[in-house]
Amino acid sequence: MSVAVTSPAKPGDATSKAMDQTRHRTPGIGTTGSTVGNFGRALLPLVVPVLLLAAWQVASVSGALPPRILPAPLAVVAAAKALIVSGDLWRHLSVSAARAFLGLAVGGGIGFALGLLTGASKWAETFLDGTVQMLRAIPNLALLPFVIIWFGIGEEAKTFLIAFGVFFPLYLNTYHGIRSVDPDLVEMARAYGVRGAALFWHVLLPGATPSVLVGLRFALGSMWLTLIAAEALAAQSGIGYLTTTAREFMQTDVVLVGALLYALLGKAADTAVRLLERVLLRWQTARASN
Amino acid sequence: MPIVVQNVGRVYPTGTVAIENISLTINDGQFVSLIGPSGCGKSTLLSMMAGLDAPTSGNLAVSGRVGVVFQEPALFAWRTVRDNVSFGLQMQGVGKEERNARAEAALKMVHLSNFARSYPHELSGGMRQRTAIARALVTDPDVLLMDEPFGALDAQTRSLLQSELLRVWEQTGKTVVFVTHGLDEALTLSTRIVLMSARPGRVLADLAIDAPRPRDTQTDPSLRAAYETLRELLTKEVESVARAEHDRDWEGMSKPVATAAEQFGADI
Description:
The structure holds 2 protein chains of 2 kinds.
Chain A: H1 9-25, H2 35-43, H3 47-62, H4 73-86, H5 88-120, H6 122-136, H7 144-151, H8 155-179, H9 183-191, H10 196-233, H11 239-248, H12 252-280, H13 282-285
Helix pairs in contact in A: 1-10, 4-12, 5-6, 5-8, 5-10, 5-11, 7-8, 8-10, 10-11, 10-12, 11-12
Chain B: E1 3-11, E2 17-26, E3 31-35, H1 42-50, E4 57-62, E5 66-69, H2 81-85, H3 87-91, H4 96-109, H5 125-138, E6 143-147, H6 155-172, E7 175-179, H7 183-189, E8 192-196, E9 203-208, H8 221-250, H9 258-267
Parallel strand pairs in B: 3-7, 3-8, 5-6, 6-7
Antiparallel strand pairs in B: 1-2, 1-4, 8-9
Helix pairs in contact in B: 4-5, 8-9
């Protein structure tokens, strides 16, 4: 299977990773085994986590692991249940998710748009790319003191930090995606008189899509990390608020629920992007259907 | 007369003269091969006919619709074979149903009907190039411009596609301008061969080839004769280039250049 993606050096790793994942989905050697064998094989990876959880529970119940250090697994389940029943879990979860996606929409939107611009226009590249590359060297969390001075500790500060963090991966990968579109395709399209907007919609944008999606994955990673840092800073609601408050009351079980919620959000976003890839990049994995 | 080239010259901004004063008239239904040493400007001439480049002097006019096939198939990886073929029609604003019907007819001509729904990465190199030919044919062009279309294929696939191209040409009566490195290929296909000089490109020879088809370049006496004529001219041209380069590089030091000519000769 050859995939026509010429990716730039850095996101190239992620492309091959994404391809590895698609490869895992295709049936491999395992399918030739018996049903029982397959069932056992499916359970095998679960053995270690289950044993670890059991050992953890035993250590907690026996008192070897005090709840102040780490709560028992069942205590975490109970805490999650209580939060679900009270409705707090959903409330904090949706506040955090909304925060993250607002930041992604603002920063990612601008990054995508500017990437398209500098990728498609030599003039825009000369004018803008140097500046963006300079700003990229600044880790977004290093701006925290300024962000507090500029925006206080409200929602704007959080949105800004997340937007700043997701801007660069989307900008860079969109720019490189447009740039790495096969010049032969552009030449061919020009032979059909295709120029300007049509060239952009039918040639440049679809050609850049695989790279843009790689950028989106990178952006999600940056988005969750920034969200966690921003929410730990100060918040009146959200998962960060939940865990910060719980820590002050030594409710380690709730702290752990918070960590699991972040993991859940991250996983959900990653799954969403993977679905998006499956729809937009169907051609990469397609097999002859006739 | 679909293609008229009058005193055309092309000078690049760097000052390199790619083409110098070429005049050429190509008639309806002719199959013209452009051959010449590497860098002689034959691809540049073709690009100008395709409207991808413009002459810096002289006039060049192509009447009727033009279809282009490049050395690389240049297919959209994200479009199916059928949607690649119908690209030109889509850009002309042709409706989806008509587009698909015409794309499928074009695919039939190159024997790819069964792969209409496949994606380019599922095809072999020869099939991809056939897709590109179907894409050029689908707009029903009057002139088919081909820039070394079979250059990147293996010998067997090349000869298969050559006979397919000939069949399409005989069926449709289109005018074909075909850039190639291969004398044999030119002799097999063309009704006329235009030999261009080394840069700056000029017309060295213009031969009508009217041997009967199917042709065997090894046995047909008129093709043998044409082969010898063209090869001699081409070798002389390549030698003079090698000598000029040699003189420039060695500034009066004497060194035989026959081997260079032999090397180039093998390539043509």
